[in-house]
Specification:
116 residues; alpha/beta; 3 helices; 4 strands; globular
Length: 116
């Protein structure tokens, strides 16, 4: 896969895959992996929409060094926009693009939501 997409709670699985990919690539670089193509290895980006962050004060672990795109909405009644913004800034501080839309707890559905 080139990238991974996570929506809502599925974002947690996407983040876990990014972490697996990072560890696999570290092991491959060190020559300590026995698996030819470990899970997630070679990921080049992640897209998260409506992504919840761990509770305030909980560790998010080390930053993830992948380019990331984050969609969230102030109108989201399931995941507060502040949580999605915190997850983006803490987990992907160097390669993070954030796009806010008005569509609630859903991926952006209109082109004007993502045009930049």
């Amino acid at each position: 896969f080139d990238g991974v997409l996570g929506f809502s709670e599925g974002s947690s699985a996407a983040v876990a895959l990014c972490r697996l990919a990072g560890r696999a690539e570290e092991r491959a670089a060190a020559g300590t992996t026995a698996v030819e193509e470990p899970t997630g290895m070679g990921l080049r980006f992640v897209v998260l929409t409506g992504a919840p962050a761990p509770p305030e004060g909980a560790s998010m672990g080390a930053p993830i060094e992948l380019p990331s795109l984050h969609f969230f909405s102030q109108a989201d009644t399931c995941v507060p926009a502040a949580d999605s913004r915190r997850l983006a800034s803490k987990l992907f501080p160097r390669h993070c693009t954030v796009i806010e839309h008005d569509g609630g707890h859903a991926p952006p559905l209109r082109a004007e939501h993502v045009r930049r």
